[in-house]
Amino acid sequence: FQIPAPDVPGWYANNTDIGFVPPQSVQSVDIVCHKSAVPGHDYANVQAGSNIMLQWLTWPESHVGPIMDYLAPCPESGCTDVDKDDLHFVKIAQQALKLKPGIASKTDWLKAWVIDDFIHGDFKWNVQIPSDLSAG
Questions:
Q1: Kind of pairing between the strands at 51-55 and 67-71
Q2: Is the per-residue pLDDT at 112 higher than 90?
Q3: 58 pairs with which residues across the strands?
Q4: I need a labelling partner for 62 at 20 to 30 A (CA). Which of 101, 114, 122, 136 fits?
Q5: Residue 89: closest CA among 73, 76, 72, 75
Q6: Taking the alpha carbons of 102, 105, 109, 115 in that order, is the dihedral positive or negative?
Q7: Phi, psi of 17 (to 5 degrees)
Q8: What is the pTM of this model?
Q9: Regarding beta strands 124-128 and 51-55, do their DSSP bridges make them parallel or antiparallel, or are they unpaired?
């Protein structure tokens, strides 16, 4: 949305599409933070065991499905210039379908996904960082 990209801990990709990575590319580095993504110019210090809130600027309503949270340790040189080929991710959390009053996944499955709450919650998502996470 902005060139040059602001100094934020989030990754940046100057792609004008809605984030689609074709199935034949899911084993490539394009799946990491999107096609041609580069690390943010900043980082956030977070304590193991703490909860953090992540926020997106927007989200396409067609992006329906689970929300999965991954982490990868940064090298000693830091996170702001890491090559995404060198990162080794581990999933720390996920949510998918959610029981909601008056919503049945068989009849209204789009609203049954947790992403519906995310979209209607100002694109905010809370994540608990594992308490046994090593520094870095």
A1: unpaired
A2: no
A3: none
A4: 101
A5: 72
A6: positive
A7: -85, -175
A8: 0.80
A9: antiparallel
Q: Which residues pair with 9 in a beta bridge?
A: none
pLDDT in tens, 9-56: 888 887 777 667 788 888 888 888 888 888 888 888 889 999 999 988
Residue 57, both tokens: 């600027």
What is d(CA 104, CA 108) in angstroms, rounded to the nearest whole number? 6
Res. 127 pLDDT band, cuts 50 70 90? very high
- Residue 82 Cα distances to 2, 64, 70, 86, 93, angstroms: 21, 30, 16, 7, 23
Within 10 angstroms of residue 133's Cβ, the number of other Cβ atoms is: 16
Structure tokens belonging to residue 129:
């960082």
At 125 the pLDDT is: 93
Q: Which two tokens stand for residue 93?
A: 């959390």
- Element spanning 111, H or E: helix 109-112
Strand-pairing partners, residue 125, are: 54
Amino acid sitting at position 104: A
Element (H, E) at 124: strand 124-128
Looking at residue 58, its amino acid is T
Continuous H helices in 51-127 = 109-112, 114-120
